User: What shape does this take?
Amino acid sequence: MLERLAEFAVEEPAHRAGEDHPMRQVTRSVAADAAAWDPATRSRVQGIFDSLAPDWHSRHTEERLTPLRDALERGRPRAGRCVELGCGTGPASAVLAEHFEAMVSVDLSMEMLRRAAGGCAHRLRADASRLPFYDGSVSTLVLMNMLLFAEEMDRVLAPGGTLLWINSRGAGTPIHLSPEDLLHAMPGDWEGRTANAGQGLWCVIRRAGD
Assistant: This one.
């Protein structure tokens, strides 16, 4: 079940990705079946983001962080250890560091990590489909414009833990799932809150009954 909150400072994004966008197709494939994340797909996606890394930070404006800030304020994420997946060059890391007592930022692209500003988080190169964390060891997972590996997210998330799903341009984000698709992809029963904010949307979910 999703509780839909009132919209916050909603504005229309200037650019929108369609359903035929290559990353939209990858997003839907791996959310439905982790086996779709085969070596060829992994290599292709890593190559794309390595090539985008030199000017990645210039693509991010303060307005694109509005859905994340709103999710942290109204979504009620669990405090404790946060893992940020798909951190890129780190535009969201400083915001997250203000809210969590311990934090690790993860990305598949070494080129992205090399360009990330220091000081906000420990940074780790890893494949989010096989995270180097113990079962049930993470209080909150943050996925901002990031692929969803549902079984792996479920594995590392602690009892009572929360998953923050952020699309900075809403349905116009290349890596996009609707909140309903997010809940459907996760194993078992999940519940949470969602809202449109700024140019994007957010959803904060936890296992039902936690």
Remarks:
- The CA atoms of residues 11 and 75 lie 20 Å apart.
- The helical segments are 22-32, 39-52, 66-74, 93-97, 110-114, 150-156, 179-185.
- The chain has one domain: 2-207.
